[in-house]
Design goal:
Elements (H helix, E strand, L loop, with lengths): L3 H13 L3 E3 L2 H10 L3 E3 L2 E3 L2 H13 L14 H6 L16 E6 L4 E4 L2 E4 L6 E4 L12 E4 L2 H5 L5 E4 L7 E4 L8 H10 L4 E4 L4 H8 L4 E7 L1 H9 L6 H16 L6 H12 L6 H5 L3 E5 L11 E2 L1
Parallel strand pairs: 8-10, 8-11, 9-13, 11-12
Antiparallel strand pairs: 1-3, 2-3, 4-7, 4-10, 5-6, 9-14, 12-13
Helix pairs in contact: 1-3, 7-9, 7-10
Length: 301
């Protein structure tokens, strides 16, 4: 049976004009399944006639006789490039795609277009097409999907300079991919506001953001209450995550907005997940380089 794996081997052999190849599991299928080639020891030998047989068989089954760079092609492009299996050889269908939305009550502004979205909706888009067309003040990078999806339920108070920020999901294995998100952030020039969990790994995520302008978290009094209360403090997150990120957090400059929040986590030896701010309807503000929260003129969203 001729499948994509065997077809790709045949294409490579034809491209090289190979007279022989190592007899691995795939090459073994040429003589065993198709009667092509001659086996001697651990080598498969191919004649000009065998080359012609492979070429004719590939074309008859809808494959190209030469290798096709399938990995970055869409399914439709793979069909057009003469491979009968539109899923063969490709990467993830959502290659290059990211998930984004506007803040509640705002429009998504891209390339001169203003798109209003209902609550709980977002846009899935190829970042290559929009990296230089974002018409927002900044980018808010949200760590967890539930908070990204339900951002309209949050009580945020941001400075006017960032009141029209773009909201971007950090990504996971299915909804978006973190490498796409990183590439998009690197390709833009907008300030980045991190909105992570208040735990060591979340602060590491924030600290690695390019052009970090601040971190969204509750005001200091409320955050300390959550970190110190037996009913809300996550001692386990602090304990389990600290060994993997302690070195990074110790290296963060004191002028970084990460530094102030890291000081609070160390003080209480605990952490909190950002979903709590949804559950408790907690007011969240923008932390910058000191313990004083840079709220500016209150823009409630």
């Amino acid at each position: 049976m001729l499948d994509q794996t065997l077809a790709q081997l045949m294409q490579r052999l034809l491209e090289r004009g190979a007279q022989s190849t190592t007899l691995n599991a795939t090459a073994r299928r040429l003589p065993d399944d198709l009667g092509i080639g001659r086996v001697q020891g651990k080598t498969l030998y191919l004649s000009e006639r065998n080359h012609q047989e492979m070429r004719e068989l590939l074309l008859a089954r809808g494959y190209s006789a030469t290798p096709v760079p399938l990995k970055e092609m869409s399914r439709s492009d793979r069909l057009a490039a003469a491979t009968p299996n539109e899923k063969a050889g490709g990467g993830a269908v959502k290659t290059g795609r990211i998930s984004l939305k506007a803040l509640p009550g705002k429009t998504l502004n891209i390339a001169g277009r203003m798109l209003p979205l209902p609550d709980g909706c977002h846009v899935d888009i190829d970042w290559h097409r929009i990296s230089d067309a974002i018409e927002h003040d900044a980018i808010i990078l949200v760590e967890n999907y539930e908070v990204f999806d339900q951002v309209h339920r949050l009580h945020l108070a941001l400075p006017p300079a960032y009141a029209n920020a773009l909201v971007l999901y950090r990504g996971d294995r299915t909804e978006s991919r973190q490498d796409n998100v990183k590439a998009f952030l690197s390709a833009t020039s907008l300030p980045v506001i991190a909105f992570p969990d208040m735990d060591p790994m979340g602060l590491q995520i924030a600290g690695k953001c390019p052009r970090l302008a601040g971190i969204i978290a509750p005001e200091q009094t409320e955050l300390e209450r959550v970190l110190s209360s037996p009913s809300t403090a996550r001692l386990d997150l602090f304990r389990d995550q600290l060994p993997g990120v302690a070195g990074f957090l110790r290296s963060v400059p004191s002028a970084s907005p990460v530094s102030s929040l890291w000081g609070l986590l160390q003080k209480h030896r605990s952490a909190a997940v950002q979903e709590r701010w949804l559950a408790d309807a907690t007011l969240c503000v923008l932390w910058t380089s000191t313990f004083a929260n840079a709220v500016g003129a209150d823009v409630s969203l």
